[in-house]
Amino acid sequence: MVADLVQSFNAMSMELQEAQAMQTRYESNRKELIAGISHDLKTPITSIMGYVDGMQEGIADTPDKMNHYLDIIKSNAKYTNQLIDDLFLFSKMDINQMTYERVEVPVHEYFSDIFEEKKLELEDRGAKLIYDCDVDDMLAIHLDPKMIYRVISDLLNNAIKYNDKTVTEIRCLISLAYNNPLTLRIDIADNGQGIAEEQIHAIFDTFYRADAARNKDVGGTGLGLSIAKRIVEAHGGKIWAHSQVGQGSIFSFTLTDEQQRELA
Length: 264
Ligand code: ADP
Description:
Number of helices: 8
Helix content: 55-70%
Strand content: 15-25%
Distance between the termini: 43 Å
Bound molecules: adenosine-5'-diphosphate
Number of strands: 7
Shape: globular
């Protein structure tokens, strides 16, 4: 009797300790997030204020200089806007208020539409897009089309954005990872500069940007891959990356048909 009581007391105290540890982790993530947001919002706004001051004080005294100042103000405002959009989406995911609208899509058609659309944009930016869909023609899967479009679009955009125009080719492959529950695998490979081994574990973290990239004016928010990770996980999948410096990176993710999983 006393032994039972001691046992349940111990179990309760363990549970309490675990809950406290979880709360501490949560608080520390939150603090990091707030520090990151304040820093990242302050930078473009300070720049906007500086250039507006410059214009008011008449430093931009030729039409060319004026246009140059306006371009900088516009690109900083655009970045602030993107940061706020990403943050809004991220916090919706963080408090589990994100609703996914899964519908059944034909695999071939859905992915080729995305890649065909992106092909032209990537060609304009100097890279050839090659894609292959190695699944049955009739295969269909339940997913949120807008959200998965966002993941693919971010990965393709990153391939160009973070490689200083060195990427000439992006290869995408859609294949079947499992039959039951239906799981697709998507690989997106670039032949860019690659990511250093010591950085690769952190790239899916919120607000992480490799230092070199942070300094370059590429306009990232450091939220792209952490949002992609959450979207993929909400689709019962995983996302990961392999990279070799000087040779390129491969980003891969899986998508499981949640409806089929429920039936299985
Ligand atoms: P952002 O939202 O700022 O674009 P991400 O979360 O998408 O940031 O990416 C995090 C970091 O991962 C980037 O700062 C960059 O250093 C690195 N990265 C992502 N994709 C690639 C890629 N294809 N090649 C090289 N580096 C990449």
